[in-house]
Amino acid sequence: MKCVVCNSEDIFEKNVTEEFRHGNDVILVPIRTLVCSSCGERYYSKQAVRKMEEIEKQIEAETLPVKTVGKVMLAG
Question: Cys bridge to 20: 9, 14, 27, 71, which one at CB 3.0-4.6 A?
Fold first, then answer.
């Protein structure tokens, strides 16, 4: 397989973190997918896309179990 962006053949499966937003909140979700080592382009399987779609639905319904790991503060 060649990368459609940079034509590199250095594409490997790895864990990445997808970022979902809900209001002012950011939810980080680990996903396993193919990634080009040269340019970072990601290639998602149908299963990974379905998982992300389900996560988005759960976020909207506020049923996704999450835990707070930090906070962002705004000065001013």
Answer: 27
